[in-house]
Write a structure and sequence with these properties.
The complex is a heterodimer of chains A (204) and B (253). Chain A is mainly beta. Chain A is built from 3 helices and 9 strands; from the N terminus they run H-E-E-E-E-E-E-H-E-E-E-H. Helix content of chain A is 11%, strand content 30%. Chain B folds into 2 domains: 115 residues; 131 residues, no CATH class. Classes of the chains: A mainly beta (204), B mainly beta (253).
Chain lengths: 204, 253
């Protein structure tokens, strides 16, 4: 079977109902989807049978999901607003163990009778970093909204892994795996300032 | 605090005398790609609609009515408490014509000895009601339902409501009749009730699982609702003794 079943692709060619689901592998797992009410659905091999995804209000901003490419990928923030107290509580209750947990985003289409047309198709995975709760001050005539965000890292980019911010030889040696003191990858970087294209290599 | 949907009071919609009542089931959508005419395919992201209601231009004149509106303001403003809002389907529901008007609810039913309550009122009873015939899961979009005493077939649309244990009263309606089963007569406590039975495609998916045998209400179906964000109901008095407030509701969440 295709990764995205043919019937889903066919459905997406016309007007359709799209469900976007988010699974955070906390214990117990947090299930949220971007619909109005709770729906039973599941990711294959991630969810148990009979998981119910909480209706998380209306999708506020789905960030551009980037895939780790050449080591650079942004952290993305998933925000929900118009959260009802119950969902907010469920999210806030799961705050402490959120860090480092796997976050899976998936989608599937719903048929005429609001049933998911397949298991949720996972299309993006990241690692949860931290949550942000935000309620901006508003003027008197406006209504305030509560927005919860979850910052998620793609790939291996996280704070526990230092980045090569300086690209200097001492920095490179410090970051280099133990047992490789002869890593001369950044040996010539000082020459960049003089407009020279230095050789990037092992420094032999 | 867990939101409380059940055992909430019911809006007395006759008492506040609305001039205009509307019910809606909006769903959120975004545009897909556009063609040369600017038309787009629609992508519904809300995964099904919400029920909303507007009770507009009520005629408030008696002091007791003002009290009632004041109670609504006190209870409902800020949108964290709920109330059951009856949907006025009296005119077009499948109800029998009694005394020239469609009658969803018979009032003034006396005691067995023919007497009424001391204030002159009697018991009341729905003329038409229904029953769920098959278990249905949460978020199901199809319901098999038996309707008792209907004055017509179910064909285009009717509202009905189901009382859920946790989620309280929720209103549903159908957009397609998928199947019609054999009509029949069911005997309950010695009385015969003619019924029709259907498989219906719901426009609002079930908010909670239902079991076979659950009663459904077709006469003045109710939905547990709250004031939408940003709506408040001020106590408003025109020329000392009149007011015509407009109430907005959205399905409880």
């Amino acid at each position: 079977m295709d990764f995205v079943p043919e019937s889903i692709i066919e459905e997406m060619r016309g007007s359709h109902t799209l469900g976007i689901f988010m699974h955070v592998a906390t214990d117990p797992p947090l299930h949220v989807w971007f619909g109005t009410e709770d729906i039973p659905a599941n990711f294959d091999s991630i969810d148990d049978e009979g998981s119910v995804y909480l209706g998380g209000g209306v999708l506020n901003g789905l960030p551009t999901l980037e895939v780790l490419l050449n080591g650079s990928s942004d952290a993305v923030d998933f925000s929900l607003s118009g959260i009802d107290p119950e969902t907010g509580r469920a999210m806030i209750n799961s705050l402490p163990p959120v860090r480092g947990k796997q976050v899976t985003i998936g989608l599937t289409t719903l048929d005429d009778h609001f049933q998911p047309m397949s298991s949720i198709i996972p299309f993006w995975q990241g690692t949860a970093s931290h949550t942000v709760e935000e309620s901006l001050p508003v003027k008197s005539a406006q209504s305030p909204t509560l927005t919860l965000s979850l910052s998620v890292m793609a790939g291996s980019v996280s704070r526990s892994r230092p980045s090569r911010s300086l690209w200097s030889q001492p920095h490179q040696e410090a970051l280099s795996a133990p047992g490789h003191p002869l890593d001369k990858f950044c040996n010539e970087t000082a020459r960049l300032a003089r407009g020279v294209s230095p050789p990037w290599g092992l420094g032999y | 605090m867990v939101s409380k949907y059940s055992s909430v009071p019911t809006l007395d919609i006759d008492f506040i005398m609305p001039g205009d009542v509307s019910f809606d089931t909006p769903g959120g959508g975004i545009d897909g790609g556009r063609n040369g005419m600017g038309d787009a395919i629609s992508i519904n992201l809300s995964g099904g609609p919400l029920v909303t209601a507007t009770v507009a231009n009520c005629f408030i004149h008696e002091p007791e009515q003002f009290e009632y509106i004041g109670w609504l303001r006190a209870r409902m403003n800020s949108g964290v408490r709920f109330i059951n809002v009856p949907l006025l389907n009296d005119w077009y529901g499948p109800f029998p014509i009694i005394g020239g008007v469609p009658t969803p609810i018979i009032k003034g039913i006396p005691h067995s000895d023919g007497s009424l309550f001391s204030d002159g009122s009697g018991y009341s009873q729905a003329t038409v009601w229904g029953k769920v015939m098959e278990d249905a899961a949460q978020y199901a979009g199809i319901l098999r339902m038996r309707v008792y005493n209907p004055s017509r077939t179910l064909r285009h649309n009717d509202w009905f409501s189901i009382y859920h244990e946790v989620k309280g009263w929720r209103a549903y309606s159908y957009w397609e009749v998928l199947d019609r089963y054999d009509d029949g007569i069911e005997t309950v406590d010695g009385y015969d009730f003619p019924f029709q039975e259907y498989r219906l495609a719901l426009d609002v998916p079930l908010r909670e699982a239902v079991t076979a045998g659950t009663r459904t209400e077709l006469a003045r179906p109710m939905c547990v609702m709250k004031f939408p964000l940003g709506f408040t109901l001020p106590t408003n008095i025109k020329g000392f003794y009149e007011s015509s407030p407009t109430l907005q509701f959205t399905e409880g969440k």
